[in-house]
Amino acid sequence: xxxxxxxxxxxxxxxxxxxxxxxxxxxxxxxxxxxxxxxxxxxxxxxxxxxxxxxxxxxxxxxxxxxxxxxxxxxxxxxxxxxxxxxxxxxxxxxxxxxxxxxxxxxxxxxxxxxxxxxxxxxxxxxxxxxxxxxxxxxxxxxxxxxxxxxxxxxxxxxxxxxxxxxxxxxxxxxxxxxxxxxxxxxxxxxxxxxxxxxxxxxxxxxxxxxxxxxxxxxxxxxxxxxxxxxx
Length: 232
Prior knowledge:
single chain, 232 residues, alpha/beta, Spore Coat Polysaccharide Biosynthesis Protein SpsA, Chain A, IspD, 2-C-methyl-D-erythritol 4-phosphate cytidylyltransferase activity, isoprene biosynthesis, nucleotidyltransferase, 2-C-methyl-D-erythritol 4-phosphate cytidylyltransferase
């Protein structure tokens, strides 16, 4: 638990259609076992004892979310998201700050259904060591190559101290909202919440997370996610 307990509010950006992976519906609504990807993701967040509320940023024309059983959960709220992931996170942060500016935002990808309670707890507890905020990440294990624009190897990159950024990522709501808003106004490319904080001069902490916390981006990932979830 945090030394000074505050509300933990999970934010799930699910507004963009993203890659449909050859399907007719947004990828977060593709089936993974008995329910869709997003439903699994929400189950992990809604059932965690230290998460007080879950805010999902949806596309204004989303016709699928209301059909999920999780959409009626007492801990869940929705907001209208934006065109890009960062815009959706900012919309959710605007809402959260209006009701609880002292909260912590735990931002998690809609298409990462394999996140475990153990990793979520580890990230939340890391705030004691990293009061500026932190992210789940995994050390790079493979040999890394840098290429030119023609697909030829230029050189091998030293993998020491390199990490794969994962989610969730946790930051104080008001601080993250301020830096994310400023970065978007400056047209800075924002790939995750940590990149907005880094741009503002903040050095988020790294929390070693499980490698099976994959993001579903390719049809093959569905089978891999199903395997990981069955083993968990």
